[in-house]
Amino acid sequence: MDRRVAQGRSPLASPNSYPSSTFVTVVGAACLVAIALVVYTVSHPDRYYNHFTWQAMAFLEGQAAIRYPVPPDGASLGNAFFQDVLPVASTDGVARALVPFPPLPAVLLLPFVALWGLATNGQLIFAVLGALDVGLAWWALGYLPVRTWVRAAASVFFGFGTVFWYTAQLGTTWYQAHVLAVALAFLAIGVALRVDRGAAFRDDGPAQAGAAGEPASDSPGSAAVSNGRRRAGLGWLVPDGRQVLAGLLFGLACTSRLTVVFAAPFFLFVGGGGWWLRRGWSAALGAGIPLAALAVYNLVTTGSLLHPGYQHLYELEAAFYQPLNYHIDWGIEDIRYLPQNFAIMFLNTPVLLPDIVPAALGTGGPLCTSADSVRGLFNPDCPLILPRDTGMSILLTSPAYLLVLPALRWGYGHVRVVTGASIAVLLIAVVNLMHFSQGWVQFGYRFANDFAPWALLLVALGLERVVHWAGGPRSWPITAWLAVAGSVGLIAISVFVNFWGVAWGDALGW
After folding, report:
1. Is the peptide bond before 441 cis (omega within 30 degrees of 0)?
2. Is the pTM of the predicted complex or chain greater than 0.85?
């Protein structure tokens, strides 16, 4: 037994609780990326939503608006089927429309589109990036005081036990934005944690300083703030370069998925600077650069800081998709959407014992028509259960998210990384739940990708707490075994459910 455990001392009491060598980090990342790359590309279906490919081509033409509508010509599918665009007046004699989504994924595709034009396989490119995201998750988790196997289990959960698997292998327009935002978010989190190891330890615990000698209890509202202010003087006005970098990466993530911006409070609690006010100011300085660039882009291309294309899409979807219960007299972001969207995120179940394939779930048609039909999880002729296209409860598709609970019980209000990550997850989730659309058509709840990097920190710390409790002097061997086995079992169930969802999403043509 670990001596610290035998003495009743938490293994999270020291910044060097579970150091990982560079070799372990590199090999672990390489293995995870390789596995994810195979899984994401093997399960990769042919899709044709490629707004960002057209956007990259427009940029290469010196235009902000894409060519639209372009009918299929036999060599390509064209884009006349696009709905998520805002037609605008032509400036060059070519019919064009604006893509309302933040353009960073199109910027990433620029060199590929310059080489291969509209034939660029954007889905494959983002499947590769998705595999790299799993390696980035492993890297960022390496700055938390968790065992190596806990770090690996949390990384596997992210890559294959959440809707990120469905996201990365599908790679259509909306999912490309998620994949890029997640990559940049993990980079920002890793940079912040790397210089602030003290963020992962209790303010009232034995570890009172981080790797850089920063106080562990200098979070907003803590007792050490006044002392920190006296120590800092006017030094907080000088930005910390490491936190500026974290903020820059975070700001870039926001220019791929706007909702990610509501995770900003995390960087008040975690990162370089030595004092929460300096951390926040430094991160804001870095994040402000790409966010200001996006605002200027919107202003120049649309005449508005907020893209008017979203209102256009809202009106279209409210008119044509009435079963989704949109209300055009409500705002795009409206508190009145919270109840129905909360039900999608936490209460929606799959379709049980279907007798027909609902039109919204595929092409429609009867099921189980043969006398010898036997229902099965993967039987396309007579399924036992089908995913619901409007979304499914995050606790059904990724039950290992329940591991955030021991992390919250242990560290909320006392551990800066736990407090900051919790606030980030909550704010992103609430804002997403106020949005009229919740990601339809989808498997699971794809908006969970927006807060997944921060939630994963809590999952890893929660699993570590379970393991520590199970090995503590007050636990019984059977309860210890059950606690660890149950936690790992939640991850295994999550992986299986997402495998089921990916398989059915492909079969149903989503």
Report:
1. yes
2. yes
